[in-house]
Amino acid sequence: MHTEVKALVIATLLGSGVSAHEQTPAYLKMKYSTVKNVVKFELSIFNQRERVKYYRIALFDKNFVGLPFSTRHRIIKVDYQTRKNFDVYVRKSDLDEAQYICTISKTMKERGSKPFVRSMVCSKIMEETK
Questions:
Q1: What is the DSSP string of 44-67?
Q2: Considering 1, 8, 36, 53, which has the largest number of Cβ atoms within 10 A of its Cβ?
């Protein structure tokens, strides 16, 4: 019974064309910023989801606990089939804890609409850049 249910769920997901957004690079290298004791990471996001236009940027430690960071906009608009570049600034004092920079799709609940999947894509901060 459980195997049949699992197979049905997998077949449904594969058949429905579920896709997430893309974020590059997968492994981040630190760059120096113009601000003292702050480093910069350069990222790019590509939106493959027609129903999603907004993405939240987040910085996490190894346990996915949020850490402080700075960026021009915490929520960015990325239209369908377009790419947007963005920078994330992190204090050098937070680099030992910082592990992942992620983008999380923001779903807007519309009355009477079907629920859909929220996606989160992360890039790992390379140890040798810390």
A1: EEE---TT--EEEEEEE-TT--B-
A2: 53
